[in-house]
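=== Structural record ===
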Amino acid sequence: MQSHISHSGIIYNQNGMIMLIALLFLLLLTILGTSSLYLAYTETSVTRIIESDAKALYTTESGIEQTLYWFSNPDKFDGTPQDTFTKKMQSGTSFFDEDGGSQYTGTQEIPDMVYPTSDNELKVYGPTMPGAICTVMSTGVSGRITSTVTVELYEDIVGIRILPGSYRVN
């Protein structure tokens, strides 16, 4: 037992002071540990949301790229893509009629083609901009995150491309 005698002769017991300091130190360590765990949990949650958001956007953009590929190679597919893209092409050369109108006349509510998969849905319908072939709306889903990209496609000497200025993220 540690004790200290003051100049006035009073004996002070320091064991209680050491115990108090030790308890305060343990309380401080507990607060720091709890805060670290909370921050780690929060960072993990934010990271999952960012990952889902990125995955949804990449899935959405892959749907646009898939549609561009279908336009360039309609004969390489059976079923929906081939039916949609081959039948809309006039004389095997153009997606426009003799008056310059697009063969795609559907709307967002009633599209010319809907192609759903487990994590993506593609809609192809009539253009909203003059000179465009069609509008492509691709919706990607990852967890609770949904991303939608809408583009207008046009045809130039290189092939089917995204009309500049038409890329819209919803």
